[in-house]
Amino acid sequence: MEKIQDLDQILDLLAATRTLPSLQQIVEKLTEYLQVDHAVYHWVDSLGDHYHFGTYPSDWVERYQSEEYVRIDPVVTGCYQSFHPVDWRRLDWSPRKVRLFLRDALAHGIGNQGYSIPIRGPSGQFAVFTISHNCDDSDWDALISNYNRELLLLAHFFNRKALEFEPGRLDTQEISLSPREIDALTLLGQGQSRAQVAQALSISEHTLRVYIESARYKLGAANTTHAIARATSYGLIVI
User: Fold this and answer.
1) Rg (CA), the chain
2) Are residues 160 and 181 in the same domain?
3) Banded model confidence at residue 121, pLDDT cuts 50, 70, 90
4) Does residue 238 belong to any structural domain of this protein?
5) Using 50, 70 and 90 to split pLDDT, how confident is the model at 123?
6) Given CA atoms 4, 20, 164, 64 in this order, what sign does their dihedral have?
7) Which residues span the domain enclosing 215?
8) Does the residue 2 lie in any domain?
9) pLDDT at 199 over 90
10) Hey, what long-range contacts does 162-168 have (CB within 8 A, 24 or more apart)?
11) Cα separation of 93 and 100, whole Å?
12) Number of Cβ within a 10 Å radius of residue 121
């Protein structure tokens, strides 16, 4: 696979891929492009089955599972409790067991910085898209500031593509939109401009665009008007 020059290439590759191994290659290319140590996508389907791909070392994946770290990992708890991206620095790492878990993760090269995006899909599907790296706070803040919108889109694109590989898992009649996505499409469907909607929701137009693009992709819509029409037909919004 050739060197990635921009994130649009990654989105094109995601749209074209037909196998899970290809997703692994794409996520590896993403780490090269962003210049971060790791990127990981993990999802739990409606039946409770777990799947993942990414760049964490295999010995860390095995240790995480054998030690049942999922029970104490604050990233997991933080993502289950939030609809918004989770910066690891804002989590509670103070309990002793959590500090030991963090020490173990750092020893395995996971990185002292992390950014995880929770995704809620149809029929109870839940996923997390994460990037992590070892760097100081200022460099991390700059990276997240530069790529925040793109990371949100990539998380949902990875999720949509992964669901395609699970026959019978994806039901377009059970698409789940976040409260913000519903609000955005509803107000737009009522004829308000993007500036008016952003003001009504007390968010920036940049953030509003992220919600619209996320909803559009979940709905498989070609544009915003198409997304509003589909959301209305599925009963997700009322105009």
Assistant:
1) 18
2) no
3) low
4) no
5) low
6) negative
7) 177-233
8) no
9) yes
10) 162/20, 162/23, 162/41, 162/43, 162/51, 162/127, 163/121, 163/122, 163/125, 165/19, 165/20, 166/45
11) 9
12) 23
Does 107 share its domain with 219? no
Record the pTM. 0.69
Contact status, residue 104 vs residue 136, Cβ threshold 8 Å: no
63-101 per-position pLDDT tens digit = 998 999 989 999 999 998 888 899 999 999 999 999 999
CB atoms within 10 A of CB 79: 24
- HSE-CB of 239 using CA atoms within 13 angstroms: 17
**Same domain flag for 114 and 185:** no
| 95 φ/ψ sector (left φ>0, alpha ψ -120 to 50, else beta) | beta
User: 208 and 117, same structural domain?
Assistant: no
Report the distance separating Cα 70 and Cα 53, nearest Å.
16
Report the alpha-carbon distance of residue 239 to residue 232 in Å, rounded: 8
Q: What is the pLDDT of residue 8?
A: 78
Instruction: Report the length, in residues, of the chain.
Output: 239
**CATH number of the domain enclosing 227:** 1.10.10.10
CA 179/CA 237 separation, integer angstroms: 10
What's the start-to-end Cα distance of the chain, in Å? 45
Looking at 132, 164, 196, the residue that finishes a domain is: 164
Residue 43 has pLDDT above 90, yes or no: no
Sequence-distant (≥ 6) Cβ neighbours of residue 68 within 8 angstroms:
none
27 and 93 co-located in one domain? yes
Whether residues 94 and 190 share a domain: the answer is no
- Over residues 191-201, the mean pLDDT reads 93
Average of pLDDT values for 89-117?
Answer: 96
